[in-house]
Design goal:
By secondary structure, the protein is mostly helical. The chain has two domains: about 1-230, no CATH class; about 240-360, no CATH class. It has helices spanning about 1-55, 75-95, 95-105, 115-145, 150-175, 200-210, 215-225, 225-230, 250-255, 260-265, 270-275, 280-295, 300-305, 310-320, 325-330, 335-345, 350-360; strands spanning about 180-185, 190. The longest helix has about 55 residues, at about 1-55. Residues about 1-10, about 60-70 and about 180-195 have low confidence and may be disordered.
């Protein structure tokens, strides 16, 4: 009997560690694939872009500085090791005892209807990690396909795993201690009474916190008004969401370059963005030109879009054609306002350079 029991235990251990190896090996294997296959292709594409920009005589000391971003294999060791070890520990706990934590769900910490805060906290952390891991797999794979996988991508993954786990833990305690009532999170109203069904949804809430930790933070901040309160004289925020074509993935990618609003994007170097992001040059130029329109017109951009004007370049073309009167009538904006903006930008070297770059990179 003992021999049979040992054989069964050994069999379970074999499956257990094989599963762990498969889940964790994905991280270092992407580095090998990226450096051995994808990176040379990225270098060829970048050299092609630089040749066209040089031929169009667009370079200057500020916007055409070529940035040396050649990482060695050693630069990947620390972030990849951290993510792999963190994943190994989390998956080991998550799958132990026949994956009771993962498969039992709310029953794991609500035995006999009694809430076990210690087990609930553990479940919140591990399910948030699982959500962050799922997000990380698709994130890394997408960046591998787009030939954009520097060491910073793995740092982002590691930080997200840690952040999600702690945010989920705090969110769990947040919904438990609040009195019965309602909590508005985005467009959804959640019943946060400890006697409600919300505590039964902890595994689901924690998992989605791993996918979207910032949303959980905003939900708590909205409830705690003294944290979310803005200064009355603070300028209105200009998030990247204002630009057409910006998705959550794009925002995550720009955030790695400390670009988290329209102002930062407009001031960034085009060549640096081409080098450090996977986005096509013409798309980057379009976003920058959209951003310049927002800087000058802010909320009035809505009226300009209705008139068919998406970028500052489109607005300048209307001014060059002497059609500001018609534009004022169509949009309802004051003609003096439109003329002031046009006088400011009509001789802009930066806008002219972006226009030339758009034309010479039209096929890339």
């Amino acid at each position: 009997m003992n021999g049979c029991g040992e054989a069964t235990a050994n069999g379970e251990s074999w499956y257990f560690y094989t599963g762990l190896l498969v889940l964790i090996a994905f991280i270092p294997l992407t580095v090998i694939s990226y450096r051995g296959i994808r990176l040379p292709q990225k270098q060829e594409e970048y050299e092609r872009i630089m040749e066209r920009l040089a031929a169009a005589d667009i370079e200057d000391s500020q916007t055409f500085s070529i940035i040396d971003e050649k990482y060695t294999a050693w630069d990947y060791i620390l972030p990849v090791t951290f993510v792999s070890l963190f994943s190994f520990i989390a998956f080991s706990i998550l799958f132990r005892d026949n994956a009771e934590i993962l498969l039992a769900g709310a029953q794991y910490y609500m035995g006999a209807g009694v809430l076990d805060l210690t087990k609930g906290s553990l479940l919140a952390i591990l399910m948030a990690f699982l959500g962050a891991y799922v997000w990380s797999v698709q994130y890394i794979f997408r960046r591998l396909v787009t030939i954009d996988l520097p060491p910073g991508a793995y740092y982002s993954v590691g930080i997200r795993m840690v952040l999600s786990s702690f945010v989920s833990l705090i969110f769990f305690h947040f919904i438990i201690v609040l009195p019965a009532g309602e909590m508005i999170a985005g467009n959804y109203i959640l019943d946060i009474s400890p006697d409600s069904t919300l505590k039964h949804l902890l595994p689901v809430i924690a998992f989605f916190t791993g996918l979207f930790p910032q949303r959980a933070l905003r939900a708590m901040a909205d409830r705690l008004k003294f944290i979310a309160k803005r200064h009355p004289n603070a300028p209105p925020p200009m998030p990247l969401d204002l630009l057409e074509g910006i998705s959550p993935y794009h925002k995550e990618r720009f955030a790695e370059l400390s670009i988290d609003n329209v102002q930062n994007l407009v001031k960034a170097s085009l060549v640096e963005l081409i080098l450090k992001t996977p986005f096509k040059p013409r798309q980057l130029i379009d976003w920058i030109l959209q951003g310049r329109l927002h800087l000058y017109f802010k909320d009035n951009v809505v009226e300009l879009r209705r008139a068919g004007i998406r970028t500052i370049l489109g607005f300048r073309m209307i001014g060059d054609e002497g059609k500001l009167d018609a534009l004022a009538e169509t949009t309802g904006l004051e003609k003096a306002y439109l003329e002031t903006v046009y006088d400011t930008i009509k001789g802009s070297v930066a806008i002219t350079r972006l226009n030339k770059a758009k034309d010479c990179l039209h096929s890339i």
